Amino acid sequence: MSNTSVAAKKPPLFHIVGRGRGQLPFYQAWGIRLGAFALALILNAVFVYLVVGVDPITFYQTMLKGAFGKGFLWPTIKTSAKLLCIAVALAPAFKMRFWNIGAEGQVLVGGIAAAVVMFYFSDLPAVVILLLMMIVSLVAGALWGVIPAFFKAKMNVNETLFTLMMNYIAMNLVNFFYDLWKGPKTALGKINQSTHAGWLSSLWEKRDANGYLIRGEESLFTNSDFWFVVIICVVAVLMYFYLKYTKQGYEIAVVGESSNTARYAGISVKKVILRTMILSGAICGLCGFLVVSAQSNTVSVSMAGGYGFTAIIVAWLSKFNTFTMAGVSVLIVALEQGAAQMANEYNFMGFSVAAADVMIGIMLLFIVGSEFFIHYKVMFRKSSKEVAAV
Amino acid sequence: MMDILVSWLQQGFKFAGFLALAALGEMIIEKSGSLNLGTPGTMCVGAASGFISVFLYANSVAAPNPLVLILLALTVAFLSAMLMGLVFGFFTVTLRINQNVIGLIMTIFGTGLAKFLSDFFVKTESGNARCQAAFEVFTAKIPFLSDSLGIVSKVLFNYGFLFYLTIVIAIGAWLFFKKTRTGLNLRAVGENPATADAAGISVTRYKYLASCIGSGLVGVAGIFCTMEFKSGAWAVADIDSIEAFGWLAVALVIFALWKPINLLWGSLVFSICYWAYMYLPQMLGITVSDDLAQMLPYIITILVLIVINLRKSRENQGPAALGLAYFREER
Amino acid sequence: MTIPNNTAVAFRGVTKTFGEVYANRDVSMDIYKGEILSLLGENGSGKTTLMNMLSGIYCPDAGEIYLDGKPVAIRSPQDAHHLGIGMIHQHFKLVDVFTAAENVLLGVKEKGLLDLSAASEAIRRICATYGFELDPSMKVYDMSVSQKQTLEIVKALYRGANVLVLDEPTAVLTPQETEKLFTVLREMRKDGKTVIIITHKLHEVLAVSDRVAILRKGEYVGAINTCEADEQILTEMMVGQKVELNIERREPVNPVLRLQVKNLSVKGHEGEDVLKNISFELYGGEILGIAGISGCGQKELLESIAGLQHVEQGSSVSYDTPDGKTEELIGKDPKQIKSMGVALSFVPEDRLGMGLVGGMGMVGNMQLRNYTMRKSILAEIKHSRELAQQIREELGVVTPSLNTPVRRLSGGNVQKVLVGREIASAPAVLMTAYAVRGLDIGASYTIYNLLNKQKEKGVAVLFVGEDLDVLVALCDRILVLCDGHVNGIVDGRTTTKEEVGYLMTNLKSEGGTNHE
Questions:
Q1: Contact residues, chain B, for C113 at CB < 8 Å
Q2: Top CATH class, B2-311
């Protein structure tokens, strides 16, 4: 407790302060982000070199090929679209500072709801069944989103923990239906394999008198994946306008900034929370519907592919801008697809698909970490006079 | 009937053991105000690195030394998981990035790393592996107690040393929070970091330490799961189930109302529910969907969340500053 | 550099900036051993920042701090504790779910396990020495404000504080509690401890301290022995020049009843009376000042009128529209009040936390009042943009662009944005809370002029203020709140600061509401 022991210490070399009023110009901020990105690319290359001994040039060539090469571009686009869709769904919730960790579950219940219609109402006309599927999915997703929102609005129950739990209830629900429909078979397979009822493709498929598919001319417009991507892009653009230009979007922004200000302006905070989470959940539900009707035609827990969680990071990184989200989504999926190609070519050297997650993790940590240097600066002590040790 | 009940309880205890340990790790982290959603990933890393180390060691020597096996598995699992905690701490405390975001990245990264390590080091034909030597030391029973007390032995003394260690650690944690200065300070950091800071407690150091030690325990829980619950067997696919158990541990912390002693019985409640579908049909002739049964722990956790908010009881809430970053010079 | 050898604390050239704003600039000042020093200064003069550097909350950007003549680096509150410096903050630093004893032991570096009974014993001893009352096993969330403050002081003493800093300790206390606190402080001085109290209440300064040090705009002005000082001298040192406000004040023209508040009562979280049977009338064309020590119901009064506060049964606020209708405002939310055509504008105390959206630019903040103007689902923006531009030009708001988040503007500019917006909606009633707090003289006068213009337009202005000089110079009538009661309504032209100050601190009687 002697004074001298403290006095002998030198003043701190640096301390951290918020940038406050001195915000970085946008080109510097993006410079920092790009720098972090480049660092992560280098680190990933080093990682791969150490593991399988592939030189960086070959490595990134293979990655690029796997992500954007011939025959690989389309899978990258449609998978990115799925990730984008969930991120777009999360955008309004996050803008409201509502931590919706439950997107995975909301997508799953949306998918399940669609599949239930598909499974039990397969006799309905194609348009009707698809419409019904969509509506039910939207409602299911919205419900999954609004339950935690209700408890948040009513009694301030922690939404992070609540939505997190809701995911696992949804997962078990999916497994339940999966097991139910699978019966004694080893796997469920596609639902309505013969009739294609509830498949998006049933909208344009033609069948002959005996019910056999007539192979028509293939075009972009008779491609489920194409519509999948188009619908999601439309939703993303709409969301951009919703958040930026509508009254409701404005209210979300105010509530996110300060609920006191919202009250002052006559905005009902509870109403906005409920409404926004219905929207957020419904878009997740839509994603579930799209996956079931246009892609998988069946249900499984891997339907959302864990993207419910990845999308949280995408939405957070993109600061609610849906166009940025598209870019980040493509980046993450490209890493995944590229790594899959690496695993394909270098599997014998010990490179597995799992390496993708490692590389994505490194990439995300670097990009997310760079935000620190954008918002804070490290101040070094100005005074050159050192405090004399006593 | 009795037999089924006993094996149900056995299964329950086996499952509860590592679950309680993982939840304990997460609880220590949460007590410091950090919500670490990277726990499932951390658990996978602990399990994979721990298993790989004993697997490689056991395969490289003719007669593996039991003590080396234990020390190797525990140390490697603890340290590798601690590194995960260190990264989490660095990003959330030093770089002040949102905890949810970093936690989720750590889970993606951790499960990926675990799988990658497993693919890289466990090169068996099928990808499945087993480490019999390690399994034996980790599940070695206590002499006398485990065989001479009849049903009590079967239910309570049928497990490896980690099971009992977990109970000791839980009680130790309770004493730590209740009776030590460090424990008091740690609780203060999670409740009100500004106050703790003003009282001369280094918030940064406590958060880092809690994150590292808590994550280390989570890692040990991973190897515990592999050795005891999975009987020393290993497959890449197991990592997905370990991840799911990690999320269950996060739920358990809430269910236990952030109190270490509650973890001990809380974990048992969770696991009894979780495995009910396997035993209820034989015992009472009731068929329960495994999927619906495994949903139950999450539903009760949600109910607990709602009830503690309804009753507004200050004592049973989680740490007040849970999930919030602390930055002294902010104004 | 010479440091007098009887100093407990000495600052030399201490500078601290936040962003580009100097909170303290080149402060050099001495504090002697065994004295009670008042640190005096207006709001925003850097008193708290300076003391926060002494207690390790902030690091100085430049300069040195000397303790007992030796230079020290106080890098953290921990260092401050080691050096025997204890600070009692305005916002108490206590853990709610802990007991008093646990709070006292927090962060204390002693050997062995947590010994709550020994700590309780020590607390009782300290209480006995200085005359406190405190139950060591009581949880903080069960404590009253004054008990919490007591706990804070006991905490500092338990850690062996020789230098005790109190940041506006009396703001939350009743006069009796304040007197008790002063007795304790004198006991401490007898014990050889150095006490620094931050305050802006002159009579307290004169009552308790040995010496007064004055800060103005972050700079050290000087110190004076209390026995040589009076309020006039202190005020001059604080403000820098004699207080000649010269605020223009015209006679109200053709006052009409606009707002009638009757029996307004509000209870706080613990069921205590915050406002009790408040009744008054507000006329168009006048400025009615609300005076009172801070936190005695001003905020609740304005928020009740604005529809943001839950009020008790029997309360009534009726509004007379310019076309002769009378509307009841109690029981309505802000949206309903607005939709009834009540032209009510409100400049709340918490500008960035309530009146404005800190993360939005001027345009976004104009939208807060206008965004619903359009019939479609789209938010109104064109008019808001024009309005923002207009306010920027007319009030001289300094901002890089209309979309720069207002959080990054200086306090004065923030207030111009807020007041400008509220006036732009052509109110019939304009309520302002601490409209000039933290503003420099120039910006303050801009606000006074704006309020006077509104008054001339026939707007009924409710002005909650803290500076008595301003209240007396600006307002037509002044309503004085004391302890949640109306303790008198006086004429602004004939009253004196002394009269208002007396009414603020001395409640006439329980039924002291009938001073129409």
A1: 179-181
A2: mainly alpha
